[in-house]
Write a structure and sequence with these properties.
Blueprint (H helix, E strand, L loop, with lengths): L11 E3 L6 E3 L21 H21 L3 E5 L2 E5 L1 H10 L3 H30 L6 H15 L4 H15 L3 E5 L1 H19 L11 H10 L1
Antiparallel strand pairs: 1-2, 3-4, 3-5
Helix pairs in contact: 1-3, 1-6, 2-3, 3-4, 3-5, 3-6, 4-6
Length: 214
Amino acid sequence: MNRPPTAAELNLCLCHSCGLACDMTGEPHTCPRCDAPLHRRKTNSLARTWAYLFAALAFYVPANLLPVMNTTLLGNGADSTIMSGVIEFWEHGAWDIALIIFIASIAVPGIKFVALSLLLVSVQRNSAGARRERSKLYRFVELIGYWSMLDVLVVALVAALVKFQALGDIEPRPGILFFGLVVVFTMLSAMSFDPRLMWDGPTTDDAVEDVAGH
């Protein structure tokens, strides 16, 4: 069964900065267009991805347990965690803001933890199944990563709105710092993962061809 040659067989490498397909013949290996260093693979991809993922998980606990903001209205102040803030916004009729905070703060990090763990385990087990689906899953993780800071922006917007209307005051609390670290480390984890590892080894079509040849 015929197949087109791979980039490795053609001695080509895609520049991570500008996307140019570069010839890896000779030294040094730098992009001729943007002069960025070229790497066939991300170095220590699995180890770095696991490390960043575990760090994000460690910060995820205090991010949800510690208060993220203190709201003072008419002289009465109260600390709010992410979940209590979601409930409070929902009870006051601001279901759209509550939904945004819940998705960005609870759902998105949880999805990224599960998805990245699944991708890492499947690569370490040399799984050859559902490679296209796993590639789509990785692209989905990259996509939702851009929206991870939505709730931090919502908190800043609500704080500005409250102060503008002279209704009270809102101050950040340590939980928002831990959540920011969760966002940073989950993004680093996704960036450190090399999706080409999923395609190492013979594909299903190659395996069929080998069996047919014998």
